Target: Thioredoxin domain-containing protein
Amino acid sequence: MSLKESLGKVTIVDFWASWCGPCRVENPNVVAIYKDLHSKGLNIVGVSLDKDKSKWLEAIAKDKLTWTHVSNLKFWDEPIARQYKVESIPATFILDASGTIVAKDLRGDALRAKIVELLAK
Model:
């Protein structure tokens, strides 16, 4: 999967894992944002730092994460996480249509507000 192929007007690259409590707490907020704004151009790519495929897939289903997901099942050695210099999760990177990082590590209402602002441009 190529990130370039997944870009929308705005793309969230969401680093998370099934074993990450704060990630799982934030997931309902991300699901709501996706439901509300996907039709307006929002894409999300979930990058998991899991190492157990069954737990990863179970969390995707349980949390109703309907967007694209990738994982090399390498825990903290996840190459995409290394590329983005992720040192803790959850970690979110918000990219514009050209793939430029325009914000990071927003959650809750701040994440929604930034996405709405960027989609309005």
